[in-house]
Write a structure and sequence with these properties.
The complex is a heterodimer of chains A (573) and B (193). By secondary structure, chain A is of the alpha/beta class. In chain A, strand 8, helix 8 and strand 9 form a beta-alpha-beta unit. In chain B, a hairpin with a 5-residue loop joins strand 4 (125-130) and strand 5. The N and C termini of chain B lie far apart (55 Å). In chain B, strands 1, 2, 3, 4, 5, 6, 7 and 8 form an eight-stranded mixed sheet that branches. The chains are: A alpha/beta (573), B alpha+beta (193). Chains A and B meet through helix 12 of A and helix 1, helix 2, strand 2 and helix 3 of B. Chain B: Its main location: nucleus.
Chain lengths: 573, 193
Amino acid sequence: MINYFPEEVLWHVFSFLTSHPDRNAASLVCKSWYNVERFSRGKVFIGNCYAISPERMISRFPRVRSLTLKGKPHFADFNLIPQDWGGNVYPWIVAMAKGSTNLEELRLKRMVVSDESLELLAKSFPNFKSLVLVSCEGFTTDGLAAIASNCRFLRELDLQENEVEDRRGQWLSCFPDSCTSLSSLNFACLKGEVNVAALERLVARCRNLKSLRLNHAVPPDALQKILAQAPQLVDLGADSFVHDPESETYNKLKNVMQKCSSIRSLSGFLDVNARCLPSIYPICINLTSLNLSYAPGIYSKELVKLIHKCKKLQRLWILDTIGDKGLGVVASTCKELQELRVFPSDLHVVGNVAVTEEGLVAISAGCPNLNSLLYFCQQMTNAALITVAKNCPNFIRFRLCTLNPTIPDAVTMQPLDEGFGAIVQSCKGLKRLSVSGLLTDQVFLYIGMYAEQLEMLSIAFAGDSDKGMLYVLNGCKKLKKLEIRDSPFGNMALLADTGKYETMRSLWMSSCGVTFGGCKTLAEKMPRLNVEIINEGDEMEGRPDDRQKVEKMYLYRTLVGPRKDAPDFVWTL
Amino acid sequence: MSPENTRDLPESETSGGLKTDLTLGLPGDSQVQKSGIKRGFSDAVHSNDAKAESQPPSKAQVVGWPPVRTYRKNLMKNGKYVKVAVDGAPYLRKVNLEIYSSYQDLSTAMGDMFTCLIICNVLNERKLVDSANGEEYVPTYEDKDGDWMLVGDVPWKMFVESCKRLRLMKSSEAIGLGSAAPSTPSKGSSTSC
């Protein structure tokens, strides 16, 4: 019966399939569905840019309008991957330009983006609307100028935490007067000056502008003028805030803020002086998202005053200067909180400045809707984690980072196995987990047993033996990304179930016990995996001994074999 | 469970020479952590930095820990951060002097930071006072030349430029401290808050 469905009907049905897993599943049903699906897929998500080639992607999805690509492994964020490792977007843009793809949206994470790429992008796709770059590098403001000049229908330019070389040009002035379509502009990560007058004019003519995040170079009096032009803003990022609460600028800012009643999300405040915070009190009542994690100048007292006014917060990113008491205030005020991130304020601090398990317990008791956590803390206990697990069974993302990576339970001095065990047992929907503190193989037994939905697991300085890693590989059926550093897992664990890695996106292991011999064996057995070894330093003269331990290994499934752009220090076995 | 530091390790393929009695703290962490088996951690500390041997272990760096993005780390480095110590308090804070525009600003911030201190009026001057015992604190700073000076005698910007670190001293100990202007510190004998 299903064979006689006209394609138009299938097409229509598939237009309601938006998630990638759903579309992937549909495409496997039969040839007919595969074909309809591939011609109707507009949004393509590629979690590892080396898993497939641009040409093959285009040939399977000729009508792609929106492409998301991720490059370097996650641990690149923490300096574990050397420069020039790879992840260059240029071949993708070249291929799409050649293939006359009607690209409208490009979202990149941890990729290398050159000015040349941006220029080609800007000139090849007349309907291009949205560019989102997260943790990327390799481009300068000249590349941004090309985007501004050429993308006539640009709606979104969102630069998050990129390393951008500032050429002191006038990239912002390159938006032509005819550009009125911007709805989102985020250049907070740029270090250099922008033409403030051009910015003011741009904001004035883009009546649909909803999200605006400015960099540190936009002075407070410009901020105030811009806000006056854009009371419809929903999301505001202001890195440079007023310093002097007695100033004229402060008064103007205060007045204009009162009119910005649509703002729901606030970020920035790099150098805010706590005495100037009252200027944002009027909008606090409506805020659903607040990011003060770049504002080390606000201490507990002021933070608490601010938080008291933010009763509708769903997302809060903060520094640990808030303290356990401050988190208690969050717990009693922000009943709708879903996501909390507490970052370390000082990486070399001496003494008890950070937050502890008390703050986390308070949050869990007060905020039952909490589903996403990133928590850097001085210490933790099993009892606290067990309580958190009971209070908040809805965690989807749970990342705990003790500042000392192998610290035991602060009260019992036991490993933190039981605490994390409680988390995975209680939170049946857990998809992402990072563990830390003193941990034995036992915690991995629990993870393997209970974390049925787990997709990403980060392990550092944990476990006793290969058994630990095996519990995870055998138990977590939905595991996609596993990243391990400084843990005693070796060849036995690596090679026990080689087929498992084809069901995963990638595996990272650094400073563990796997050897060259073990990696070679794996590579020989599994031709559809790229097993890459990263060698730094000059100890590696010629091929090393099989028994030698591998410092950094990154393996991933791929349909296109060893990558051709690997630098000298990356060996594909 | 047997005490951590006497537990026997299985012969595994990890880096050999595991030091089970190593008590090593993180950089800047003078408090010794009684952790159990350090496995890779101790080796990570020693192997990642060749210079580590020449420095006391507590100063050695573990690459990539805590896992904070480089972007964030670099951002937090901006500004002029100086350590602030308070006599009698077991912890230090760091403050970014560039975000304040005056001495008054700074002393307000101190009051925020060290919640045991409040600002009182002492003989018409704003002073930092311990709310528990009424003890007065005098802000002092170490300047570029290594001399300890009283805070407040030079223009604000000059102070920001030359200040290397701050110390809130009990005023009973601040006798004879150097100041830019040739005046002795005033000792408030009556306080009103």
